[in-house]
Amino acid sequence: MHALVIHAPHDLRIEEVDTPVPEADQLLVRVRTGGICGSDLHYFNHGGFGTVRIKEPMVLGHEVAGVVTQTGANVTGIAAGARIAISPSRPCGQCEYCQHGLQNHCLDMRYYGSAMRTPHVQGAFRQEVVIDRSQAHVVADSLTDAEAAMAEPLSVALHAVRRAGPLLGKRVLVTGCGPIGALIVTAARRAGAAHIVATDVSALPLESALRVGADEAFNVMESPEALKPFAKDKGTFDVLFEASGNAAALRAAFDVLRPRGIIVQVGLGGDAPLPMNAIVAKEFDLRGAFRFHEEFAIAVELLNKGLVDVKPLISDVFSYRDYEQAFLRAGDRSKAMKVVIDFA
Question: Model-level pTM greater than 0.70?
Answer without folding.
Answer: yes
